[in-house]
């Protein structure tokens, strides 16, 4: 059996991480610990003869693989379990812009349709959300074949045109695919590449391609991407999974394996700054881009973008998002809050402590044939606790535009689909009535426009509009834009200090991430607006904001009194 440290394609990069000549991020250190443990605990085979043949194909390309690329390639394609299956069939490459991920994909795919790959009819699909991106790695292979220096020799082994590249010996095909998931049934892929996976908001297209895997031996997936502006999408899921697979490292540099999960064949190669503040130190840029030391032109271009970013961060946020792999989000002047603050709302809801307690209901019900949202707000230990219910009309004209994991939200009960021409307001009032059996709903907050839609329905369940303010509880409280402007600093502070609890509600995170702040010219206060009118819904967040306007009148849930102890004399 050959050990990994006897294979330079693996050991060279591990040594680079360990010797510290260039800074590497914590993700890479965690990865090295992970790889060393895998090889020490499992019976694995490295097919060095096949690897040598693959590496020999570099002569046809205008570049040689860098150490980190050889490392990923070898583990992904040439390391096998005791039962003969690939040890790491799934590979995530998350690197800064310019690192060469498309060149890597082109080389890997070229090898796997070459005569050196033993699996016949090993079709490979390169997938992206747009055709230009999907074609990039395909065109890299096509250009290798079209090179006059290579054409005559490679014509014996490959057939190609601008739509498909075929390995003749094994009858394997390389194609590029765009993001139309409806047309991909019946695929028999051996490998699927997802290029710029940060652009995938849902798993719809990914599922179509990955469920086709397994019809051929040694199925593989490669996810290659930089960071992007889509939050709570596929990339975030992959990074979260990687964080559970790779061990945390304590202050003494010792890995902690207690909270890790089975990798299930996933190889996680992640490069990014450890902290956003590191962007100001040029040496730290190597953490996000392991190719930077090899390409002076790339370094100079990164430096130019850094200078532009320092001069105008809002106009040049791609420096952080794409070069440093730290998500900047949308323009800071209009961003609701940092994505990390939105993720921090995923704290457990203390359901038992809420029973019988006072709450404020908030409603956002803009169109009867679109979305509607209602939720309850509580206060406990300085935190704002909120849970919601959303109704979606199946006839909404905006649904085809929406890129959101609606199916996942439906499974979790966060969204209810209404099969009708409109969302009946009684659905909302009946939900409130159900909550009234458990909680003391003091009032229902909504704006004047929503009042005309739902007033009569709320009266059916005992929630009365009382403009003369003769009643104290179970009343409708009208909320004006100025009320929300005044509570915006409270909401902003609660986000910043992680004092908002929504539980694991992906729909509320989606609503919040679709919301921006716009500063008014009149008084300098901020108003909440939609980032985009039709494809980004904000109903749940506006319902939350409406309820928050009443926060000062909402009593805080107190801890239970200490139990008295009986003393026997």
UniProtKB/TrEMBL annotation:
Superkingdom to which the source organism belongs: Bacteria
InterPro entries per UniProt: P-loop_NTPase (IPR027417), TerL_ATPase (IPR046461), TerL_nuclease (IPR046462), Terminase_largesu-like (IPR005021)
Terminase large subunit-like ATPase domain sequence ranges: 67-242
One Pfam family here: TerL_nuclease
Domain Terminase large subunit-like endonuclease: 261-517
Name of protein: Terminase large subunit
């Amino acid at each position: 059996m050959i050990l990994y440290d006897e294979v330079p394609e693996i050991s060279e990069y591990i040594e680079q991480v360990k010797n510290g000549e260039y800074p590497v991020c914590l993700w890479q250190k965690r990865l090295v610990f992970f790889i060393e443990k895998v090889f020490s605990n499992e019976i694995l085979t490295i097919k060095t003869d096949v690897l040598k043949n693959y590496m020999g194909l570099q002569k046809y390309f205008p570049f040689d693989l860098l150490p980190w690329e050889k490392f990923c390639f070898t583990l992904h394609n040439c390391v096998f379990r005791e039962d003969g299956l690939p040890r790491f069939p799934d590979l995530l490459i998350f690197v800064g812009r310019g690192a060469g991920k498309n060149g890597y994909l082109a080389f890997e795919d070229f090898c796997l349709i070459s005569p050196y790959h033993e699996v016949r009819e090993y079709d490979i699909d390169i997938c992206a959300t747009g055709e230009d991106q999907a074609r990039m790695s395909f065109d890299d292979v096509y250009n290798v074949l079209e090179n006059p220096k290579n054409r005559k020799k490679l014509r014996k082994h490959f057939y190609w045109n601008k739509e498909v590249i075929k390995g003749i010996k094994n009858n394997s095909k390389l194609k590029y695919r765009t993001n139309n998931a409806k047309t991909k049934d019946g695929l028999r892929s051996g490998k699927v590449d997802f290029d710029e996976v940060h652009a995938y908001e849902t798993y719809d297209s990914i599922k179509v391609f990955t469920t086709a895997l397994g019809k051929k031996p040694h199925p593989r997936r490669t996810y290659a991407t930089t960071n992007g502006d889509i939050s709570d999408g596929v990339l975030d899921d992959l990074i979260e999974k990687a964080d559970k697979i790779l061990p945390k490292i304590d202050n003494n540099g010792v890995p902690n394996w207690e909270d890790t999960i089975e990798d299930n064949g996933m190889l996680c190669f992640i490069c990014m700054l450890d902290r956003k503040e590191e962007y100001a130190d040029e040496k730290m840029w190597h953490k996000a881009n392991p190719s930077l030391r090899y390409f002076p032109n790339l370094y100079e271009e990164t430096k130019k973008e850094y200078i532009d970013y320092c001069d105008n961060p809002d106009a040049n946020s791609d420096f952080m998002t794409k070069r440093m792999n730290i998500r900047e989000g949308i323009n800071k002047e209009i961003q609701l809050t940092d994505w990390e603050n939105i993720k921090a709302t995923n704290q457990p809801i203390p359901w038992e402590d809420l029973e019988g307690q006072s709450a404020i209901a908030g409603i956002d019900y803009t169109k009867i044939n679109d979305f509607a949202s209602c939720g309850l707000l509580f206060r406990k230990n300085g935190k704002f606790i909120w849970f919601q219910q959303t109704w979606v009309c199946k006839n909404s004209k905006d649904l085809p535009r929406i890129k959101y994991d609606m199916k996942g939200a439906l499974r979790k009960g966060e969204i209810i689909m209404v099969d009708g021409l409109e969302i009946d307001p009684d659905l909302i009032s009946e939900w409130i009535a159900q909550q009234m059996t458990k909680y003391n709903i003091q009032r229902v907050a909504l704006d004047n426009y929503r009042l005309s839609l739902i007033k009569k329905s709320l009266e059916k369940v005992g929630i009365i509009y009382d403009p003369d303010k003769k009643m104290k509880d179970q009343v409708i409280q009208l909320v004006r834009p100025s009320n929300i402007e005044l509570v915006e600093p409270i909401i902003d502070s609660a986000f910043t200090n992680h004092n908002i609890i929504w539980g694991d509600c992906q729909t509320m995170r989606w609503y919040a991430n679709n919301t921006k702040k716009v500063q008014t010219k009149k008084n300098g206060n901020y108003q909440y607006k939609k980032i985009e009118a039709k494809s980004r819904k904000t109903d749940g967040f506006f319902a939350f904001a409406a309820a928050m306007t009443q926060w000062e009148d909402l009593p805080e849930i107190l801890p239970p009194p200490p139990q008295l102890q009986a003393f026997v004399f």
